[in-house]
């Protein structure tokens, strides 16, 4: 007789009851286990709040609690999510789009442990033998030392001589960074001019200004003599002299050579914190070159001398990963057989996720968000673990339509091994393969946070929700395209995998640069275009900001708001800053009181004095048109644009609405924004320039199908205002809307790096034989002309 249904099989769904994280309004859902569930909805509707901040966060917190308290104190403290109940949660592994650290010492190899396995391999069978795995690490310098150690033995003090020696692999000249920097003196000054004629070309060094008078009146150089006529001593004093006390017009001052002066004031500062014109100067003046001693490999002579089958570890790390996989197959030594199994599996996983075009020595900070996410996936693909919850944040970000099918296969493989796969996604290709869909909305921010639909794809189509209505959206090719008004000429581009590329990027129109992931799009555009004048680059690098930063502070609107409040009430502007004089004395402007409880989670409680506003009572009594400062910061951008009807604040707010961020509240913490929201906030600020060249890196990342149309309208408005727009993009709707397409390929890595098509979208669809042409044809429902 068949056995009764076992009680252990009754936990087949993850049950969420009353989730209220961020903007969620008491959401309750049942998510089937061992299935692929996709969470959809407009940007800001609450998808990440439900999936990451509630389910994944609680799973990780519960796992952390299983460790001894001694271990817990060294782990990140996670707060309990605001939810009534969360049942049947399984261990969660988060694979998000956070960029990998841009630490100069982190490479693709070190971030995935592939390099650690390579170091072990070379330390065991490399010939000649040079040492342990440390001898192949570019982060460990070679050091040695000796000295006397005094110890007590049997009540007597005994001296013993000790010595130690560590053999590392770090190149001593570049300290394992692979490159050295050099200042281009021709960018600092014009040698044909004298100092009095304005020879110094550094921003802020005007011929009649104090910075230059420090040189002209110091007595070390002749201000009327052209720099090219200086004697050796004069030139050395002008450029490199150590700080020296001098008297100028009876004022004691310190004279210092131009190079150390500029190095301290500009080159040693955080590049992102510099003003745009100073940053442009720094980018021109400082040349980074491969280290001449190690050839850019980061490794010293010893590490490079040990070889396996004629290949050194530097050669192996520089290979394209698909080529490295072939080389590993030639290494056949029974002494390292178990190691080779793990190494081959890791390298094969790179190829499986479509990253075979990378090399292990590629700096991890140069990976795009999509590449970083797929790199993180590599750890989990070969895992024998099952009944795990895998959580993905837009895994198709940065993927060409050609690569999306491969990503879908990987998601289904993870599910078919018996895992629960939760995916936050906008692409219809991924929504189509879902076993279960949870659609959130109806709007964004306060207008979202409710479940609109739960069920399968067919039900979503018929549901009438915003996602259901737009699921089958297909852009049409434009009837007519704009004519270019000039061109940016790029000649002989060879960055990364580019093969001596010559291309003219048209100006005054919307140009889309496309091609499969790794074909060379970013290398071509980011590697060459920013060198031209009036270029505004809006990329996906995260906005620097903490819980005290908000859209109001980042866009500069807060300064205008504070001035308006100060003027209306006859007090000083500093009162209206929660980070300054107006802060609540109890919570110091945070709005919450944080109690640190050691090894358990920190507790955040609403500040009773200011009730979460962050401002003191005195400040909240001042009003502007009937609203106090806390009420104004609680407004969404859309609401605030009707409150501030003119001036720079109104202009910025309208631009925020233009880029689809009308739902963000002015006081929301920046660290709660998604990657797509951050990029669009940057774009809103950058749109102030007229006649500029805008470079946008995948602006549709994080955008709902319904919002893509708004984004296209905004790009059109930018072009119609007299700007040139260059978009690196995979979304077919943006390609179809372009005036000009540059397609790079035909493949990725060394199979790419050439221009395979230049022309209008209509020409691409009609006659081109590239992967992009194939997918765009399918998208717009056209057939190739014979």
From TrEMBL:
Residues 8-467, 475-771 form the ABC transporter domain. Keywords: ATP-binding, Cytoplasm, DNA damage, DNA excision, DNA repair, DNA-binding, Excision nuclease, Nucleotide-binding, Repeat. PROSITE patterns: ABC_TRANSPORTER_1, ABC_TRANSPORTER_2. The keyword Secreted does not apply. It comes from the Bacteria. It is found in: Cytoplasm. InterPro entries: AAA+_ATPase, ABC_transporter-like_ATP-bd, ABC_transporter-like_CS, P-loop_NTPase. Pfam families: ABC_tran. Belongs to the ABC transporter superfamily. UvrA family. This is UvrABC system protein A. The lineage of its organism: Bacteria, Bacillati, Actinomycetota, Actinomycetes, Micrococcales.
């Amino acid at each position: 007789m068949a056995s009764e249904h076992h009680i252990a099989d009754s936990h087949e769904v993850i049950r969420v009851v009353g989730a209220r994280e961020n903007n969620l309004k008491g959401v309750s859902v049942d998510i089937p286990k061992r299935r692929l569930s996709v969470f959809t909805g407009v940007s800001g509707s609450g998808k990440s709040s439900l999936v990451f901040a509630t389910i994944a966060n609680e799973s990780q917190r519960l796992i952390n609690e299983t460790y001894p308290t001694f271990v817990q104190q060294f782990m990140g403290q996670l707060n309990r999510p605001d939810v009534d109940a969360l049942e049947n949660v399984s261990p969660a592994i988060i694979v998000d789009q956070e960029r990998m650290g841009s630490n100069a010492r982190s490479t693709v190899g070190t971030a995935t442990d592939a390099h650690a396995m390579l170091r072990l391999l070379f330390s065991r069978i490399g010939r000649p033998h040079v040492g342990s795995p440390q001898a192949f690490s570019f982060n460990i310098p070679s050091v040695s030392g000796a000295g006397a150690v005094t110890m007590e033995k049997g009540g007597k003090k005994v001296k013993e001589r000790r010595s130690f020696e560590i053999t590392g692999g770090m190149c001593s000249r570049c300290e394992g960074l692979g490159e050295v920097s050099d200042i281009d003196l021709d960018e600092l000054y014009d040698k044909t001019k004298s100092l009095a004629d304005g020879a110094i070309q550094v921003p802020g060094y005007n011929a009649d200004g104090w910075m230059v008078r420090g040189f002209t009146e110091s007595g070390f150089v002749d201000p009327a003599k052209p720099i090219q006529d200086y004697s050796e001593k004069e030139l050395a004093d002008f450029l490199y002299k150590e700080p020296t006390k001098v008297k100028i017009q009876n004022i004691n001052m310190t004279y210092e050579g131009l190079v150390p002066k500029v190095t301290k004031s500009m080159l040693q500062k955080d590049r992102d914190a510099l003003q745009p014109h100073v940053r442009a100067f720094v980018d021109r003046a400082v040349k980074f070159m491969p280290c001449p001693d190690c050839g850019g490999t980061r490794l010293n002579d010893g590490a490079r001398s040990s070889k396996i089958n004629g290949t050194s570890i530097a050669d192996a790390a520089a290979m394209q990963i698909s080529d490295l996989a072939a080389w590993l197959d030639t290494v056949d030594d029974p002494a390292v057989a178990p190691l080779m199994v793990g190494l081959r599996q890791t390298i094969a996983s790179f190829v499986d996720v479509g990253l075979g075009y990378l090399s292990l020595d590629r700096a991890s900070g140069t990976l795009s968000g999509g590449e970083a996410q797929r790199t993180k996936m590599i750890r989990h693909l070969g895992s024998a673990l099952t009944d795990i919850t895998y959580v993905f944040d837009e895994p198709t970000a940065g993927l060409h339509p050609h690569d999306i099918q491969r990503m879908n296969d990987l998601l289904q493989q993870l599910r078919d091994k018996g895992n629960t796969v939760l995916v936050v996604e906008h692409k219809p290709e991924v929504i189509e393969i879902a076993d279960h869909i949870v659609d959130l909305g109806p709007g964004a921010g306060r207008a979202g946070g409710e479940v609109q639909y739960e069920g399968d794809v067919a039900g979503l189509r018929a549901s009438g929700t915003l996602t259901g209505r737009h699921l089958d959206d297909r852009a049409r090719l434009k009837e007519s395209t704009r004519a270019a008004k000039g061109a940016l000429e790029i000649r002989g581009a060879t960055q990364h995998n580019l093969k001596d590329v010559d291309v003219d990027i048209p100006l005054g129109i919307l140009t889309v640069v496309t091609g499969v992931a790794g074909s060379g799009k970013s290398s071509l555009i980011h590697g060459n275009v920013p060198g031209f004048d009036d270029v505004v680059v809006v990329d996906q690098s995260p906005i620097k900001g903490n819980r005290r930063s908000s859209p109001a502070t980042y866009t500069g609107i807060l300064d205008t708001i504070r001035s308006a409040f100060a003027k209306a009430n006859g007090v000083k502007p500093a009162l209206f800053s929660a980070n300054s004089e107006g802060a609540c004395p109890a919570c110091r402007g945070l709005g919450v009181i944080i109690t640190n409880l050691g090894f358990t989670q920190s507790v955040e409680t609403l500040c009773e004095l200011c009730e979460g506003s962050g401002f003191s009572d005195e400040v909240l009594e001042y009003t502007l048109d009937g609203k106090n400062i806390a009420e104004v910061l609680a407004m969404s951008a859309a609401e605030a644009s009707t409150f501030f009807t003119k001036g720079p604040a109104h202009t910025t707010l309208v631009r925020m609405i233009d880029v689809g961020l009308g739902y963000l509240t002015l006081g929301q913490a920046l660290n709660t924004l998604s990657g797509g929201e951050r990029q669009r906030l940057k774009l809103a600020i950058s749109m102030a320039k007229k006649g500029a060249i805008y470079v946008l890196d995948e602006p549709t990342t994080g955008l709902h199908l319904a919002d893509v149309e708004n984004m296209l309208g905004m790009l059109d408005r930018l072009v119609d205002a007299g700007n040139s727009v260059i978009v690196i993009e995979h979304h077919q709707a943006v390609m179809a809307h372009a005036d000009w397409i540059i397609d790079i390929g035909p493949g990725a890595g060394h199979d790419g790096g050439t221009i395979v098509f230049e022309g209008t979208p209509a020409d691409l669809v009609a006659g081109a034989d590239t992967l992009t042409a194939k997918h765009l044809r399918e998208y717009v429902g056209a057939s190739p002309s014979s």
